[in-house]
Amino acid sequence: MSLDSPEEVRRFQGDSGQLELVNLDAGAVGRATFNPGWKWSEHVKPIAGTDSCQAAHSCYFLSGRMKVVMDDGEEIEYGPGDFAIMPPGHDAWIVGEEPCVVVDWQGFADYAKPA
Length: 115
What we know:
mainly beta
């Protein structure tokens, strides 16, 4: 299996990025590329149909920067080399002009999958 030859590709609205997914015995692993200007509440919320992202994420940031704001107001920014454990209930957006590439081995199985 390789993320360079994914089993499934899900595109975000507005040409704002995509998710490449492979299914391993232990579960789905995905690599998402979020283009500059991407924001969950604008580009994935219409696909997910929820008020905030309800996926739990265990992920690693390869490039770019992402700001995450939890439903309770807690804020954190991630960048290259960072690991993140995010519970459900958040919005997120890209900071800066570089695409953000993230590998997630927990929360992408149903991410940006039409209901």
